[in-house]
Amino acid sequence: MDNSKHSGNAENAQGGLTHFDAGGQAHMVDVGAKNETHRVALAGGTIRMKPETLAIVQSGSAKKGDVIGIARIAAIMAAKRTSDLIPLCHPLALTRVAVDFDIDAASSSIHCTARVETYGKTGVEMEALTAVQVGLLTIYDMCKAVDRGMVMTDVKVLEKHGGKSGDWVAG
């Protein structure tokens, strides 16, 4: 592989991004010197669907089973496997993953919220985001036979607590 185009100070060349070494190559960030702290992230997202699809979810009559229950399990499993899915993401021992789904009949949508916690050296934002995405994708998968036009939207970190950079709440 020709590395000649990857020279100089990668941190400056990449605008302060930290997943690049001094030669500009991607690497997993060394968090060994960081202190272990309680870290929490909250992420959310929404899936919009036809009112009749939402009625099927609410009634529990989907042909594939309990849509919300299965989506919750899938989201929790995804949070636990984030480092297998996202390159350069640290494997973490999660201490808590809580996933909630709120149905909004007025907008014919389901909002997913994932709260992920650990006591570690790096944050859990990626785990919370992955949980939300997989939870919403599971709803899509279980309902696509009756509604292929569902839209997943507004997936984002809502809060982050702990660690060197402290707390952050979406505005």
UniProtKB/TrEMBL annotation:
It catalyses: (8S)-3',8-cyclo-7,8-dihydroguanosine 5'-triphosphate = cyclic pyranopterin phosphate + diphosphate. Substrate binds at L88, C89, H90, M126, E127. Pfam families: MoaC. Residues 28-163 form the Molybdopterin cofactor biosynthesis C (MoaC) domain. Keywords: Lyase, Molybdenum cofactor biosynthesis. It comes from the Bacteria. One of its GO terms (molecular function) is cyclic pyranopterin monophosphate synthase activity. The active site is at D141. It is an enzyme of class 4 (lyase). The keyword Lyase applies. Its EC number is 4.6.1.17. InterPro entries: MoaC, MoaC_bact/euk, MoaC_sf, MoCo_biosynth_MoaA/MoaC, Mopterin_CF_biosynth-C_dom. The keyword Ribosomal protein does not apply. Pathway: Cofactor biosynthesis; molybdopterin biosynthesis. Signal peptide: none annotated. GO terms for biological process: Mo-molybdopterin cofactor biosynthetic process. Belongs to the MoaC family. Homohexamer; trimer of dimers. Catalyzes the conversion of (8S)-3',8-cyclo-7,8-dihydroguanosine 5'-triphosphate to cyclic pyranopterin monophosphate (cPMP). This is Cyclic pyranopterin monophosphate synthase. It comes from Noviherbaspirillum humi.
